């Protein structure tokens, strides 16, 4: 869908030159003076972006503007009379997303594709994530952008959400802490971030019309908590509201969410913008405190002017929004006239992505020390299309225009392994032929933006396989998945393996095992897939995620033992899709027709009776998302939250707690008891005492810390501090966070189901740790909510 939006009505240059002479200038005069000097038309101009095609017009596609930084997602309007420059907003979150080539320009503008968010969360290492942010933010600065539209920290409520790869976790603490580290890293460059999509954007199907219906407790504890942590711990310059409604109101139109909660309760001082074309009622957005309408349309401009003129929108509302946008601009590199080079150090950043990717890969299985692949191994046969066509990241606005992607096989060759050339030729020829058959439709401007249909997996030829088994020492099979915005994933052939993939797995495992040779599976995926039915087959499974442009090198670093894996799952891998608590309330069986896809892109959804899970979604599972559900209700899983193996093993001893004025510091000693250097994560869960007011999950993650690289025999004592407010649950009846009295079981472990040490602490009196607004409450009981 091409958006041709030319804002000819916003011809700011036409303002009479006389005014310019007397006009205060941004940066010289205080912001309130600038606001005072602005005409209503200028204010409305500033509140909306330049539109997709940019100020110069043209044929930009969704997610791109052409002016200033071609391929950036959006630009604000300049007002030269007042010395207000335009600033540039660009996606996000796996790297800067701009156009890599420009007409008539021999230079290239490639950006580094870093690992997807899910991988970064699986590092459980905020230092590593901050380093990634620092490198990524440098590209934002050096390519002339001002704000990166990232990180995205929606909760992975359901395994099939098409954007889970852009999100961090099923757990709000992990999401919030990792997002805060990412924001700190990016913003250390003097550029901004936009934490998104605020909030409750947990499905892609009908994402612009869906109403996420949930209790306020669920909203506060699960869907807002990560944002709260990120706001309080990292001061993001901006927040992007989401497409969806919550309890009947578009988030961008909700004053309760944007002003009462985000600004007044959490102290957010920055700018709020809409998601692209998000929401419907512009005056309501302005009143809500959603400052900037992106990418901006002429209609929004007219609506603002009219609403002020007819008195339905106050001058105070627009002035507050305008002054926040001006503050954002004043802080921007463009306002400071930063002389960007267009030449970031891509080589140095490639090293950052390679290293960070190894830290977030999760070793799911390693029977009989199959990995690392020892030095005597001479030859590897690599099966599976994605061994050769490795997936660096997902599609849509979260994609990055990178110069290259290192495939798994390239990575293995770089590490000195020999690959079976026959197998390689068969795959490369097959992949080339399939790509030729399914060439992207060049007339469709979205062709490169939407998820592509996955190539059918090749099944092995029996005779060839017998020869390969004799000629090789180890087999590797890579299974790949990709997804992206606009679509949720499916169960068949996506959450589940396809028949061809299963056949490949079975036949390769049988053939290699027959002669005592090992098979390793690499999962090149962005979200959970089914593993329970086949995980017994291979000897080892490495969850490599979508690991960015250096992915193949990063996997080779782990397979060779150069790096010892230390990633941990930030989401549960259920046995069956239907085990997920949200499965009954998610559009898993929905395939949009053409109209619905267009509607999803533009918000112009044809009139129809509301459909459950598309037009409204009940968050019936409440706070029981992910491990909170599986562990509380005793449901078996394939791999639990927090899980991940290492080539060494660690012992946890000497757990202790120190209490000081409502602060609790927990320490534990982690010792590397194996023969190889490695890192371990200490995960701290609490089980709250039974409460008469609220039901409590069996456990909740409250803190985590990763050790340094511990040499064999080396130990480190790590500490985690909680305050009373970290023990609190949200009680909507009294609009407050409450820490119950009683004894809390403190569990320190290496997954939600592998607890190594218990401690306890007692809270003498029930304490209200924070009073809140009664914002966004509809009905507190889900059954009552569902009757409305
Ligand atoms: C996405 C946002 C993105 C924006 C600009 C939207 O479709 O939901 O995450 O930042 O486009 O490209």
In summary, what is this structure?
The protein is of the alpha/beta class.
Total discrete domains: 3
Work out the strand percent: 15-25%
Terminal-residue CA separation: 35 Å
The side-by-side strand order for the widest beta sheet comes to: 1-2-5-6-8-11
Largest sheet: 6 strands, mixed
The quaternary state of the protein chains shown equals single chain
The CATH class of the largest domain:
Alpha Beta
Mean pLDDT: 93
Q: Give me the Rg, rounded.
A: 26 Å
Low-confidence segments, ≥5 residues, pLDDT <50? 1-16, 54-63
Tell me which ligands are bound.
Answer: beta-D-glucopyranose
User: Which class of secondary structure composition applies to the elements?
Assistant: alpha/beta
CATH architecture assignment of the largest domain: Alpha-Beta Barrel
Counted by DSSP, the helix tally is: 23
Helix amount: 25-40%
- As for the CATH topology of the largest domain, it is TIM Barrel
Shape: globular
Please name the fourth-level CATH homologous superfamily of the largest domain: Glycoside hydrolase, family 3, N-terminal domain
Total count of strands: 30
